[in-house]
Structures
1.
Amino acid sequence: MPVQKYTVRELVRKNTQKKATGLTRDQVGEETETARSMERQKGRALDEPGRLDSLRLAEWAHTEWRRIGYVMTEGAMDVYTPEKDPKAVQWERQRLERVAAESAAAGLDAQGPAAVEHLRSYRVVARRLDNDHPGAAQLTSYTEATSVEEAARKARAVHEREGGVYGVGLYRIVRVEEEQQNTDDKLARLETFVRKAILPRTDPHTTARRRALEALGEDGILCTARTRNADGDVIVCTLDAGHYDPDDKPPFRDGKPGGWHKADASIWNDLGAACIPHAAL
């Protein structure tokens, strides 16, 4: 079971708190009125598809803006700072404890809450060392860690091994960057929807899953080989980048991808005239 790092309501609260950071009481009051108007707008025409979910999100955002205004008044805060907001601090601690418990239950981490405290999202970029290797020239992966060094270690542990995306001695990590949290509520909600509602329902090695990964900007971990079917439609491989081994043919053994490319029900190798094998990124 995947670990849910943020519930939808937690995400709405977090985005609202980030947007409020550094604002004065008057500015928070203006944002509260805007949120109130948005809630009223979403409350109209509830029979439209998806309107009820939109109303719920608007209600949560409005409630959080009102709460922040109250906290600032009670605490005589000139500008809002989440670290000085007792309720925000409590919610974050509870979220970390929940994530740690879910991780332990899923067998992902046995170290408890300390293991997820202050986690940040990092983008890890690895470059191909051997130009003769048919894999992508550059691979990008994402991981949660407490530092750049830990992010690199985690990426190596997962990918830098026999059967891993990096393989053994084929790729070297050249850049690790912290992913800035997106403060755009709509984009954040869309990403959450894709991760929680789309990805879990898509079968591996299908174009639907590939499209979902592309929407999340994670297509760099997939093979770039493609071909054309009998109808002339382009088919793009959905196996991991660098998977190809010409001596390992279908059926796939031990759950590992074989030497041929695969997408949905199509399987092909690099020998066909219409195939483009492992195009560089």
2.
Amino acid sequence: MQAHREQSMAGPGASVRGSGSGLESHSAGVQVLGLAVFLAASALVSWLGAIATLNNVNGWYVAADKAPWSPPNWVFGPVWTLLYTAMAVAAWLVWRRRAERSTPALVAYGIQLLLNLLWTPVFFGLYPVMGTAALWLGFAVIIALIVAVTVTVLFFGPISRAAGLLLLPYVSWLVFAASLNLWAALYN
């Protein structure tokens, strides 16, 4: 409480050194660079996933039996763009706080990002090789991803409420995507 009051009295952007508050600030240039790095990491995962998707979404997936609630393919690009941007901003908010628990929170974030990267090539890329087994493997990956993102939300929330809240639409979308994945595994 004292550190918060000292921070408020010192003014915006001021640093309260030695308070243990986690509010030590980065310079503006480092802040911008940090945000750029998180956005670039999300963009890389998005781009790599798009490669696996584009090579197969107009292939085997066209004739696949899809869930009746499956949106048109054009919906996925804009939704994922928003989600990847929100993910990057959330991670940046946690990183910039430099809180005591930021490192494990960002490790959890990295794990979920890797699982996110894994799902698309498993679901779309392995189907032509493995058939339905790839869809079930994709379902296992997306369930692990939902768990990892939920853990990330639980880590992010106490550090930055906004960061935790920014990931909630992502969790919701993953649950929706898991339902589409499950349907595909059951009916293809």
3.
Amino acid sequence: MGRPEKALLQGSSSPCLVDFARGLRAQRTTAGLTYTEMAGSTSVSAATLKRAASGTSVPHIETVRQFYAACRPYLPREQQIPIWKTTLKAWQIARMEERGTLGARGVRLTLIADARDLSLALQEFWEKKGALSVRAIRRYSGTEILLPLTSLERILKREALPQSKAQLLAIVRGCFATLMEEKQWDAAWQKVFGPRRPPKGPDVSETRTARPGPALFVSRH
């Protein structure tokens, strides 16, 4: 397994990041791989993979995916899906910690009543899922043609609404929505717009107080 890694900082000011790094290390230990061996089956370097598990900064989501992809063939079959889900959730929480949004509760999808609710809920959903870059969202959506980068940026800033249900679902899918969450977004769109297209026109980001508070490797259930 090579030289021992540096110990993770105890009492860190970023405990969620430390927990995430600890999970990556456990994943690699279970797989029984060195970082050099992992790098041989990925498109990232051994140094990048090691840095991802260092607990010093939150890595890019693609690095996390590559880390898991390298380990996956060596993990017990029954543990593969749970390990990915746990890894993804830990990364999302670490990102929220980094961005200072851990306390946000978000808008319940079942309570969305109008276009502004939907816009706010989508922005908060994006934060909850790790605030991925627009390029990452488009990449992981599986339907890149629906997500021009400029349009996606405006939607996430609440300067515009998705222009179709298909576009909305592409966005949430690109944010690693579960199948249940996709169904909830589908229902929210139907509730607000039905068969109509959303109106083009004024900015939807009027001042409003927020409520306090390619395909994945595995199933999104």
